[in-house]
Write a sequence for this structure.
């Protein structure tokens, strides 16, 4: 009966969907402290949960190999265990030896190699349940993702031992870390079997369609174990990755009964009384996919700029659709006062390009300066022509124009301290329809994982959002052109973008062989030409800036191809 | 007695230290065929051994995720098994299902994840012993390196089962792949216990000091098992990596009794009769370390250019030491006819810089064109100044000059089809003493892993090599300067290079905390300033070209730090 009484008490679990900064241990700890103190003062929760590696931000990458970093993590967690007024779940990388953690033998050669043995003290991806001066338990990650953008076996050993269960307010709470919930008949099931509620802490990067997959996997666990699951995800942009938040709760029947917002921070308190679940906040509506992608690109841009200590950006406005959406996202991310645009017309620029650029800037209340490239173009073309002994022409001259723009933008950036945002989309980046050190020059490539067809969709969605056409319709309606030679149009070099984007998705995102793509009905010569262009552009991508990943396979650390590579197919 | 007779016959094992091209399955197979046919026609060997993943080149990176690639590997190995006239060891990635290979459960989450299960058919890093229409055995790699520059658990499952032994000419030959020989009491010992000779096939990248480590590990195995070991390494440059060859033989007492050349291809035949070993060729003298580094940088440059389908390069000659060594390496790699240099003086360039550049070109019989940057610099400075409303100055103006040079070089490259070699050294790259899209613009950064102090040593060594001062002494004797403002000198911004290089080695190569470096006697303020510069320059390095790795930790895939990163220490 004592047990029954205890079990009848509900536990209030606060899910803190926070946006930490990688490496900012002091700042992240301060954020954690502030949230827990607020909840404690309001007596609003019994347990506060933070995402995977919340203390360090995710992914810390090779900081995890720095002894000084691990030392500071250790100190920060000990400090939080003493200062936090409520039991809290604090994710961080822990040395097994310092916390007496069980682990499995390394999957690779690290722990047996005469070279590596001293260097790699076993570190686990862990979460300490602590507060009020006590450590109540430590959960460790058992399965390590080492595919796509993940490199966790580079850094971590696999945890071992029984599920971690801590009883709070009469409820047995268990803790599972990210990848472990994706394993069928694995740690999540084991945890559910010995607890009343399973808390899953995550740093799960966004990709289109990922939320439905998360719901399906967690729902399955909840239903099959008849146990409620709380799924907490990190928020925020970190280099190529966007953590979308979108945390959620599945009840013991597998129904998704509560969703937290995508693309913004929030703390929601969930009351768990055995199978009974209720959220203190009302459930947030979840945006449709275009809205979600747009808001996440905005978040990613905001976070890249501000987390790196900047506050303003500069963007080359061509009068085309790509620079239009990038400028619009930047304004939404940073405010119009922090966005400067520069129109850089050449001898080949059309009247309407310039007027469209000015009109876009006018509608969004942002500065647009004009810096024609003719003088720079002429001067350098003459210098190069003299050295070569002949005039430059063709692609050399087209690239030169683009690079003069890059130089002007970078000078502006150096003088003003604004970061350059580049405007290339995924379709262009795929086939190398860009100039290295020209239009690819900059700090952050906002739409590098957005295919051209989706760029159009995002523009239209943004124009509809508030019923105000922030992007002039003339920009959406004209034929795309790089305007680097007379009467140039994209469709002179490339197939229609709907065909191109479908082809890129098959070859890049799905790794389909050329033969498979042809068998699906694409023109064989076109497939060979485009896939060859994609292969050849690898060297440009390798020197291009980071940008946020929204697909299942983005150019970047998701796709690691050799530059020196003769394979075709 | 029958067995004794069989054992008394020596086996002649040819070690083929070849230079494959990644992804060039047809070309690599043709090279393999040619070598085996030649040996067979001369009746010069009983078994021919090729390096780890010889068929694909190493590392194939994400080509390993492409089904079309694995299909072609499968077909090529079957074809070789039929065409090769002698038993041969052919390294390649094999799907476990297609070759009936035993493997261990995945170390990470791939084989259990609902997301990854279909995608990743288990693939092993293997070597097929085949020829004359037969497959005699298949060796599989048991331990997978996933640290430093290696990502093998991203691609491979671990092989399982007993050691692979094939009896040829009465001798029991066993086969071990690369990392497995580095494991104490592991696959190498197991193989030695059941064979007369252990053949280790490798793709072991060069780092300074690595050869002695290889010798020590293999010698230990040979001595402790009283079994001869043949260690065969791949040759050639592949993006950041240099495979130095330097294959060798340890006899059953652990003595290194034969060494193959560093930095060049070779096929040596080793006769093994139980513990008795003899080489058909005489042992090659091994170069000293400066010679070895110089020759490997030359190999890397040659291979990057030619494997990517180019034959000529263009280099900006400043009159300084960095561009001097790069031009000299390029001439040794590609011949003087394939090296063009361009002197690009500015208003701040000194007379002696230009005359030193011309003199270097004259001594090496290479073209040196002149393309002053004044016109381009003035034109763009005026354009930017007008747009800003004030004249540019300071660092903005310095970077602009460097970027105008980058634009000129790239235009030259576009027009002529020559690749740009960049000239930045590791010391500069570390502290960000470079201009993004300026002096970092180019295809291959020849000395990006060479600290400034080593640049001097290499110049002096090269001048002594043939008794001809190919690099004018005046270049070695003057104080380093970027010449981007009046009377600029490196030592106005940086400590002396011997101090800087020692500091960089501690912080970058050894991951030492700031406190440790200070405790070793470096000035605390200097350490804080330089380590901060190193952290801040990460964004420049991320967009800089590849270059060959010669240290234990090069900038590149060896060191994967987040750009958005607030950790200091």
């Amino acid at each position: 009966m004592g047990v029954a009484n205890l079990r009848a008490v509900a536990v209030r679990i606060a899910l803190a969907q926070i946006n930490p900064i990688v490496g900012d241990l002091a700042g992240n700890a301060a954020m954690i402290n502030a949230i827990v103190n607020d909840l404690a003062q309001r007596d609003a929760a019994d347990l506060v949960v933070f995402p995977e590696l919340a203390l360090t931000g995710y992914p810390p990458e090779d900081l995890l190999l720095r002894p000084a970093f691990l030392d500071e993590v250790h100190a920060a967690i000990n400090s939080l265990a003493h200062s936090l007024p409520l039991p809290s779940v604090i994710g961080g990388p822990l040395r097994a030896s310092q916390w007496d953690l069980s682990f499995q033998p390394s999957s690779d050669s690290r722990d047996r190699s005469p070279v590596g043995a001293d260097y790699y003290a076993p570190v686990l991806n862990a979460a300490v349940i602590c507060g009020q001066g006590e450590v109540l338990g430590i959960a460790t990650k058992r399965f390590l993702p080492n595919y796509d953008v993940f490199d966790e076996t580079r850094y971590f050993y696999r945890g071992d031992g029984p599920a971690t269960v801590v009883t709070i307010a009469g409820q047995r709470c268990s803790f599972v870390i990210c990848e472990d919930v994706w394993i069928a008949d694995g740690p999540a099931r084991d945890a559910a079997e010995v607890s009343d509620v399973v808390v899953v802490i995550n740093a799960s990067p966004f990709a289109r369609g990922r939320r439905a997959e998360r719901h399906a996997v967690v729902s399955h666990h909840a239903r099959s174990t008849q146990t409620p699951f709380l799924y907490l995800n990190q928020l925020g942009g970190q280099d190529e990755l966007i953590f979308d938040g979108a945390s959620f709760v599945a009840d013991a029947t597998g129904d998704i009964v509560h969703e937290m917002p995508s693309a913004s921070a929030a703390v929601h308190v969930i009351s768990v009384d055995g199978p009974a679940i209720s959220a203190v906040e009302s459930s947030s509506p979840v945006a449709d996919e275009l809205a979600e992608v747009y808001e996440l690109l905005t978040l990613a841009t905001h976070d890249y700029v501000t987390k790196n200590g900047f506050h303003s950006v500069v963007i080359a406005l061509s009068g085309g659709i790509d620079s239009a959406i990038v400028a619009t996202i930047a304004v939404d991310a940073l405010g119009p006062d922090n966005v400067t645009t520069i129109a850089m017309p050449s001898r080949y620029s059309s009247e309407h390009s310039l007027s469209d650029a000015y009109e876009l800037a006018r509608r969004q209340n942002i500065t647009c300066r004009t810096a024609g490239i003719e003088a720079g173009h002429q001067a350098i073309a003459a210098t190069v022509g003299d050295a070569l002994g002949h005039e430059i022409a063709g692609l050399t001259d087209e690239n030169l124009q683009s690079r003069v723009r890059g130089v002007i933008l970078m000078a502006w950036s150096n003088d003003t301290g604004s970061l350059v945002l580049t405007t290339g989309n995924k379709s262009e980046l795929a086939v190398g329809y860009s100039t290295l050190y020209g239009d690819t020059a900059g700090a952050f490539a906002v739409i590098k994982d957005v295919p051209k067809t989706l760029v159009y969709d995002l523009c239209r969605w943004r124009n509809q959002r508030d019923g105000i056409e922030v992007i002039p319709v003339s920009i959406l309606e004209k034929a795309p052109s790089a305007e680097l030679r007379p009467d140039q149009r994209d469709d002179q070099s490339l197939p229609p973008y709907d065909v191109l984007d479908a082809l890129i998705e098959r070859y890049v995102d799905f790794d389909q062989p050329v033969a498979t793509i042809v068998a699906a009905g694409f023109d064989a010569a076109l497939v060979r030409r485009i896939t060859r262009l994609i292969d050849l552009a690898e060297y440009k991508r390798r020197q291009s800036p980071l940008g946020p990943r929204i697909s299942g396979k983005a150019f970047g650390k998701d796709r690691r191809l050799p530059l020196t590579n003769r394979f075709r197919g």
